[in-house]
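quick one
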Amino acid sequence: MSSLSLDTIKKLPKTDLHLHLDGSLRIPTIIELAKQNSVSLPSTNPKELFEHIYAGETCHSLEDYLRAFFEILLPVLQTEESLVRATREIAEDSHQEGARYVEIRYCPHLHANKGMPHKTSIEAVHEGMKQAKDKWGIEARIVLAILRHDMTIKEALEIAELCCEHKDLGVVAIDIAGAEDGYPPKRFKEAFDLAINNGVGCTIHAGEGYGSDSIKQAVHDCGAMRIGHGTNLYQDPELQTYVAQNNIALEACVTSNVQTRVAKNWADHPVKQYIKQGITITINTDNRLVSHTTLSDELWGCHRHFNWGTTEIRQVLLAGFEHAFLPEENKTRLLTEAARDIDQIFNSL
Ligand SMILES: [Zn+2]
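structure w/ zinc ion:
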């Protein structure tokens, strides 16, 4: 294994394909937005507020992990201005650590508590991405999520329709998020079909809060082109071969998995084996704030705990660009530039 420093990792071109808008805010922004929107917070002291939001290195369950979203994060994201700002800052923070492309995901229903129309929230996120692109050159796109534990089929179809109608505002894919156990993806097949048949990408949270059966449904019944997490894929060797042979990328979020106890610790995380078995791996943050992580921290963890050297790091970085939900032309340009710059950085070591 070649030795890498965190400084070198920070310079590498990156993507974040699994990035939740509401879980990736800055602490000072939450405090300011709460003040502007008369939202009461458990504390306005930055350190104390962070303690309320951060679920700790490990938490009891996915539900425990999600608590801060409903109590603190979503209440400050109910206006157009707050969404523009949050999106712009997430793109800026990603850019500061080398990201050139991010897909920001959110569920419009969760931002409609004060009546904001779904189209308005999409326009706001689009505006935030545009401001970030103009200032820092970072490309961003939107993934709209169905909430599996809290939505009817009709509401899920509405999300699929929003995806189809707002491609011009940067919406590139549909997702399904929320508590996985008891809410198999197949239930929402109709929504995925509608999106996919209209040229929308499809990624599905699966194999995080439930076993490999959920991944099986996502791939075979729902047409997922990427899998959010896919951590429990090892439970089904046949499916594992299928996922590898069909180049279905896993959006790995290791810190988040350790936090929610999907994996015992970094050293035992199955991604370490998946890459050896020819499965396409991308490295992502999930929630920059709630998981208290960055892309560089995730890659640094892969280097230290999985012994990944320049070969594996290059492979996962380029996989992020290859599996972006972008038209071939844009993707090829980003990929070519990233490959060139990664090689230049590694050759200079
Ligand atoms: Zn997620």
